[in-house]
Amino acid sequence: MGFKEKLVEKLQNELSEEELALLPRGFQTVGKCIIIKLKPELMDKKHLIAKAYLEALPYIRSVYINEGVIEGQFREPQKIEYLAGEDDPVVKHKEHGVIYTFDITKIMFSQGNLKERKYLASLVEDGEIIVDMFAGIGYFSLPIAVLSNPEKIYSIELNPVAYKYLLKNIKLNNVEEKIVPILGNCEKKVIELKENGVKADRVIMGVFPAPKDYINKALMIAKDTGAVIHYEGVVDKNDELKLYNQFSYIATKLKYTTKNLDSRFVKSVGPNLYHQVVDIKVKKTN
Prior knowledge:
Blueprint (H helix, E strand, L loop, with lengths): L2 H9 L5 H5 L6 E3 L2 E4 L9 H11 L5 E5 L3 E2 L4 E2 L2 E6 L4 E6 L2 E6 L10 H10 L5 E4 L8 H7 L4 E6 L2 H13 L6 E5 L2 H10 L6 E4 L9 H7 L5 E10 L5 H12 L2 E15 L2 E12 L2
Parallel strand pairs: 2-3, 9-10, 9-12, 10-11, 12-13
Antiparallel strand pairs: 1-2, 3-6, 4-5, 7-8, 13-15, 14-15
């Protein structure tokens, strides 16, 4: 029996046939919490439905509902509401041997990026210097530090709440020797790093929308002799070269050569729209 069938069984005496048909098939698990989304027609029954989730999933301690979207400069969830179980939004989530702690009502965390977090770490070679320009709570910095062997990761984060959890996560994973956390705007902090002699083998630009206004700073911190930059954004499935062409156009004007090493669709984000990551090799021309 699938999960939705179990849910329907528990709610069959509480909801109409039409409402039962609208119940979701899935949910997001973060630590021992789950986050659900419901159709507008079910919102007045959300607490009842949440209790059914707890009964169907005895290992889960809390149920929250996502009624909003990720927006704003700090990429915060707009409306995550507690429904049932323990009302404690601070979770400890583990994947690929990496531990993340954060507040689900204040920090975004996409399970759709799970494979990408591990895959990016697999690309890192021993002894690399890495600059993570939009580090968040350590989405990419932590897997790289735990699963790979870089010399140093400079993790820059603007949001003070996310930065607080970045510091906690660095300690949780015992990677204090590998990650240098930096609070502030990456545009300014990259300049400071360069002035202090830092040059990166790899630069991570993991933020939406595609951060084209920061391409010049990513190039500034990249080693002139060659570096890899991970650039991402949303593209139409029929326009797979959009991000690479966008990056290459700016880089060429700044006298860099570019090579598209790889591109991949991470997850669907809308009708025919996909989150794409492009791995781009850059080198300063004479």
